[in-house]
Amino acid sequence: MAYVVTASCIQCKHTDCVEVCPADCFHEGPNFVVIDPQECIDCGVCVPECPVNAIYMSEDVPPDQRQFIELNAQLAQHPKWTLLVNKKPPLPDHEQWSNVAEKLSYLDLNN
User: Fold this and answer.
1) Which neighbouring-strand residues pair with 82?
2) Which helix (H) or strand (E) segment is 19 a member of?
């Protein structure tokens, strides 16, 4: 079972998780990061690093966010969503988004 990045990451894009990943399985888009389930080694070291609690083991993803399992898999293969292996600063307005629910409509797929 791979780990999955869920809605809490949208518009925040903290990358503390990327820095600790031994498998280099994170890919980034304009305002979100995803985990490639084909590369994830299920170690879980990324989970405690996420300051917005956006990462779950696929079997533990909340029911209202199950669409993120497939979304991570699809976007990890998107040619413009590049491999991310180094930590970057979060998005400039991440603090105002950190507690916003229902962020899927803000996911930017245009990169």
Assistant:
1) 28
2) helix 16-20
Task: Report the C-alpha gap between 33 and 29 in whole angstroms.
Answer: 6
Q: What is the pTM of this model?
A: 0.95
Count each helix (H run) and each strand (E run) in the chain, helices first: 3, 5
Amino acid at 20: V
- What the block records as the tokens of 83 is 């491999």
111 has pLDDT over 70: no
Domains contained in the chain, CATH given: 3-84 (3.30.70.20)
Q: Are 76 and 37 in contact (CB under 8 A)?
A: yes
Above 70 in pLDDT, residue 94? yes
Summarize pLDDT for 46-62 with one digit per residue, the tens.
999 999 999 999 999 99
Which tokens go with 2? 């791979």
